[in-house]
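SAMPLE LOG
Freezer: B-3
Tube label: C17
Construct: single chain, 197 aa
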Amino acid sequence: MLKRFTPIVFVTALCWLVFAVNNLVLSDHLLRYGIIPRHLSGLPGIIWAPFLHGSFQHLAANTLPLLILGGILCTRSRAEFAFVTVAGILLSGGLTWLIGRTAYHVGASGLIFCFFGYIASLAFFDHKIGTVLLSLVCIVGYGGILRGITPTSGPISWEAHLAGLLAGITLAWFGSKVRTAPASSPVTSPASKPPSG
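STRUCTURE (predicted):
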């Protein structure tokens, strides 16, 4: 049972490992590999930003929601977790690159908002009672984070939060379309007629 949670534990541990190396060995130099909006040099940050954190408090604040929301996805299936994580990093990071303020955008909060948006919106696309209950639990437990998408001039990247939320909702919609797509009917050829003779 615990093996189900290996993927999210690995992702979270990677955030802590990168933070330790960045602070203890590299004197915070990795932070420059965050997302720099609308700069070509900032494109690689789309991949690296979720694993970079500006401070211990920043990483600590992201750890529990990352574990809980990611853990919920892991209980659904590892494949679903992998899909939402990879596609969420790319989509939310890409959108942050497009709309963000000129600054280094780092942290796993974009991915956290993606997980939240995905789980919370599942009920709109999949009307099974279990899915509706899961979405409600997610909204009740973590709905307060939606304050994080309010525009601010402070050091918090509300753009990454908004981008993550939109990415999660988009992925839930896309996943529902894939699941409900009708299977293509098999191609059949007409029975060959026996030779006449």
